[in-house]
Design brief:
The chain contains five helices and six strands. It is α+β, with helices and mostly antiparallel strands. The strands form two sheets. A four-stranded antiparallel sheet has the order 1-6-5-4, with helices on both faces. A two-stranded antiparallel sheet has the order 2-3.
Length: about 200
């Protein structure tokens, strides 16, 4: 029922813009492809900061001796916390950049994972603000965490946060190539619809 309401709201936005003379360009990416390409976009950051960690920080790193199932539980906890904060930051970015507060965003649970979508049409800069807020905040925060407290937990946290932001970087790279347009975040897929007049 919720997915149908999201589709109805999105279809309503599409219909209004088409009626106003806009043409649409679909820039959505299948979730599997977005995940793979997202890792590719995140890799340069992981390689650069992983190398700096290895060269500059390894001697004072707090390496965990956790192994086996405990390591995977720790890793899962880092993923869950990072993903929840990541999606919340998307919402904060779009809530602020749209000027509409929380009315502009919708939080969902898809396949037991939280997600956030913007419910209103935005200009490119507004859309990019929300799309890249997690990368800016968690990326910078993770780098600081690694340099202040190098170790297993901070390194895993940095890797998770960059990989989680990889798909956002992929989408942002598409947005930056768009001309003057309005952007509607897709409610269920990775990506957006660009509207041109």
């Amino acid at each position: 029922m919720k997915a149908k309401k999201e589709d109805t709201d999105f279809n309503s936005i599409q219909a209004e813009l088409k009626a106003s003379g806009y043409e649409e360009k679909d820039v959505t990416i299948r979730s599997g492809k977005a995940m793979i390409l997202g890792v590719v976009y995140a890799l340069p950051f992981i390689i650069i900061f992983g190398f700096l960690y290895r060269v500059r920080l390894i001697e004072r790193a707090h390496l965990s001796e956790i192994g086996g199932p405990s390591f995977y539980i720790l890793f899962l906890i880092i993923i869950v916390i990072s993903v929840v904060i990541h999606e919340l930051l998307h919402g904060i970015g779009w809530a602020i950049s749209s000027g509409m507060g929380w009315r502009a965003v919708r939080f969902n649970i898809n396949a037991m994972m939280p997600s956030c979508a913007c419910k209103v049409v935005l200009k490119k800069k507004q859309y990019l603000t929300g799309a890249l807020t997690p990368f800016a905040v968690l990326g910078l925060g993770s780098i600081l965490f690694v340099f202040i407290c190098p170790g297993t937990v901070s390194l895993l946290t940095m890797m998770v946060n960059f990989i989680a932001a990889g798909a956002d970087l992929l989408i942002a790279s598409h947005v930056l190539r768009e001309g003057a347009c309005l952007i509607a975040d897709h409610p269920t897929e990775a990506g957006y619809i660009a509207f041109y007049k």
